[in-house]
């Protein structure tokens, strides 16, 4: 392993030789830590974070290319020789989704949405949640975009229903939020509780918190005009 590859590992806070799974995990954590949006209050810190993020992205993409070209840091054994010629294989929905995740954390949102959409169409629940997340979370919200907001949130709800039926806890949680806040669907406390309970049964801590407060939320919403001054719906959890 050459010195440059070792430096890429160091940039991602990893020991040289770590496998691709560890590389991806460390990369996502570092992107969250050094995301420039976290330092909007200080231009100097934001500039430092932006420079750091560029180095992290370059190190990550270089290591991915290293692995894809047969890098010796791979931990899995090499495939056995075959007597017959190899046939080309289409990437699985999970593989396409993982490409989307990498693109998302590299802040290439257009490409991320493209890959999430492909994997979602193939039935991958995590991708279905992710494309819903992008439609919901990456929509500009102001008085001039109300029509687009409504359209995107409705599409997000459709994708989240598909993912939730497959057991995706983030999608289940967000369905609960949509029914609780009447977001792209009529208010329905019973449906909100149902989806929060399903997500909570998988250990989703945000859903558990919502269940503790759901009776109070329902009582407040029953007060005339209260729904017009209640807090906005919370953001959706990041795909992972």
Verbal overview:
This protein is mostly helical and 240 residues long. It has two domains: 3-74, Helix Hairpins (Orthogonal Bundle), CATH 1.10.287; 101-228, Tetratricopeptide repeat domain (Serine Threonine Protein Phosphatase 5, Tetratricopeptide repeat). Helices cover 63% and strands 0% of the residues. Helix 1 packs across helix 3 (43-68), helix 2 (20-34) packs antiparallel against helix 3 and helix 5 (109-121) packs across helix 6. The protein is globular. The model is unreliable at 73-84 (pLDDT under 50).
What secondary-structure arrangement, pairings included, does this model have?
Layout: H1 3-11, H2 20-34, H3 43-68, H4 93-105, H5 109-121, H6 125-137, H7 146-165, H8 169-181, H9 189-201, H10 205-221
